[in-house]
Amino acid sequence: MVTKKELILKSGLELFATEGYTATSTNKIAQKAGVSESLIFRHFYNKEGLLKAIFEEGEQAFKALYSNIIEEKDPMMVVAKTIELPLDLATEHHEFWRLQFRLKWELQHMNPDKTKPLIEKLTEAFAKLNYKSPAQEARFLSCYLEGLASQTLLGGAFDEKETKAFLFSKYNLV
Amino acid sequence: MVTKKELILKSGLELFATEGYTATSTNKIAQKAGVSESLIFRHFYNKEGLLKAIFEEGEQAFKALYSNIIEEKDPMMVVAKTIELPLDLATEHHEFWRLQFRLKWELQHMNPDKTKPLIEKLTEAFAKLNYKSPAQEARFLSCYLEGLASQTLLGGAFDEKETKAFLFSKYNLV
DNA sequence: CATAAAAGTAAGTGCTCACTCACAAATTTA
DNA sequence: TAAATTTGTGAGTGAGCACTTACTTTTATG
């Protein structure tokens, strides 16, 4: 059974992700969820409270995605898994990731850099693979992934297999 | 002499770029520009009209920046100039570029892909330089640049010289 | 210099916003 | 089962929103 609280969270995520935080009214969220507007405030105190609750929910998915890479021992697999990140991202948790990218620009304050541990892990991997400038390589790859993710989430289609094959050959993987 | 119309354009750009389009009220813009709110509507018809006017102004800078690359004959210089793009971007027309990136997420509708001619030029350059997959290389580089620009505009500092040197050696330039 | 056009403003307009309040129904607990 | 707590709602509330109107001042023009 799905509670009304969960319906609000779901509607909030969808609307914030597609229309933006400021542009989405609490009234619209309530209508979409099929509940009274006041219930939003009973459960989440205010609009920002709802946003924070949505964020905390998604944070789990975030950590799961990253920890899979952080815990990897084989440096080649670290690079490979990192490259595959934005390819999955297009389908899985699509909405949550759109929200993340959107809010990075809309509300700069609630955006601590979550990619830091990934970049450190990548640096370590490139070092083990004897790259000349592992830190620069890590930064380079992470910038590329951010750009690709951004384009993907904004609706730009691309050939996943071709892109993956290209990157794997570029980094001498598998 | 700076006209009141220009003051509105300037204030609008600054506020839209830092706070976002939806979150910025016409009242706030008028106060920042030191004019009456109604003057905005006299000059630009409505809020969206002001945004479009700001965009058209910035479009000039955009074209200048790109045409410098498009008209370049030497393929190595094409790649070199492309790499240098996000490095200048941090200082020159900083505010306009923040607006561009912000609005790409906030108002998806007014975002036709302006990078297409650049990507085509890059593909051509990589082909001349005998890269195996010039189209993929062009897309790869443009994604990286988008990611770097995004991080730069959001305030993430980085060593310009070091990054440039790294990229130049990666692409065997100069 | 007279007149028309352009630039500028103060004071609204109706509407939507996030949020509150008083109260009712459902659920839990003693 | 009675009381207390939680979950839910409809009907507001003031504030801020984009925008209009009626009017004045400045500038350009014949």
Q: Explain this structure to me?
A:
With 174 residues, the first copy, chain A, is an all-alpha fold. Chain A has one domain: Orthogonal Bundle (Tetracycline Repressor, domain 2), CATH 1.10.357.10. Helix content of chain A is 74%, strand content 0%. Chain A contains nine helices and no strands. Chain A has helices spanning 4-19, 26-33, 37-44, 47-70, 75-89, 94-106, 116-128, 134-153, 160-170. In chain A, helix 1 packs across helix 6 (94-106), helix 2 (26-33) packs across helix 3 (37-44) and helix 3 crosses helix 4 (47-70). Chain A is elongated. The relative contact order of chain A is 0.11. The model of chain A has no long low-confidence stretch (mean pLDDT 92). The interface between A and B is medium-sized, with 33 and 33 residues. Chain B binds a DNA duplex (30 and 30 nucleotides) through residues 3-5, 25-27, 35-43, 46-47.
CATH A-level architecture of chain A:
Orthogonal Bundle
Under CATH, the topology of chain A is which?
Answer: Tetracycline Repressor, domain 2
Specify the overall morphology of chain A. Answer: elongated
| Largest sheet, strands/sense/barrel of chain A | none
Alpha carbon gap, first and last residue of chain A: 45 Å
